[in-house]
Amino acid sequence: MLYQFEFRTYQRKFKRPLQTSHGIWDIRSGIILRLVGENTRIGWGEIAPLSWFGSESFEQALDFCHQLPANLSSEMIFAISAELPACQFGFESALSNLSNSFLGSAWERRSGGSASILHAAEPPEKHSPAEPGNEEKMPNRFSGLLPAGETALQALQVLWLEGYRTFKWKIGVAAIEQELKIFQQLIQVMHNLCDRESAFLRLDANGGLSYSQAKTWLEACDKVNATPDFSADIEFLEQPLPVTQFQEMVELNAIYATAIALDESAANLDRIQECYSQGWRGIFVIKPAICGSPSQLRKFCQTHNIDAVFSSVFETQIGRQAALNLATELSPNNRALGFGTDCWFDDNDSILDFRF
Question: What gap in Å lies between CA 264 and CA 240, rounded to an integer?
């Protein structure tokens, strides 16, 4: 059958720019998709590209949407090129949502045909713990993202009071000596806050370290993790080196006790498969919204017993829900999901309060 297709673009401004080794990011741009099927059932999807991370650009995604006809078949959706991974995710998610009563009919009934997902009806009683409506009650399932630099110290304490026990901190932004000093303060704050419970810190370099800097960080992490009776643990160092230095990361992962996680190196399904074929059996950080086809990702994860941490790309609740559905289904361990990102925006998705 054919589905009526419409789309709208959006822009969301961060409360404060996100600093990474790739640069400063201050506005999240994306595309909301709507498919209308039989009995006017609605399927919502989102394209949230991250070109500097390895996906298509926003402009490429928008150009692709403009080229599509007003009516699409499922065959056309599943034939979207792997060169457009964010588009693959958005369109397949919309198609899947056509048969999901929460994302389809409930949102549509409450919003009167609009994409105002904030005012969606409550989900059914038997829904995943990761779905909207439950996640604010269980922030310990999520990793809270800390800002780079010293502001992380105050942000950590705020997130701690909200219930977070796993935190992610961007490094490779300032001088390593300065960041190592803040790092020691962070783990001490975490240790002081803990009361007979553990807290975890993830360090994310976004490929911004040199080999010698990566060794310095791993040595510092190993020292923390080896400290007796210390409540703050370093869970892993995420993407310490550029994508081109894969073998060096394999080497470091074998030398140090602190785990290394691949992020940019595993930006999409093709890269994940390539790393796996080259022998990586460590942690993969998977961002479903830019990884590519959800059906192909599901097939790969179910075939291979990979250690995966699922993470956000600052998508809206539409893309976030689809990503969380995959994460809940495919997570093989108890690692916190990297979706503690809501506090980085002021608009609470109100930018989606438009009608198609």
Answer: 10
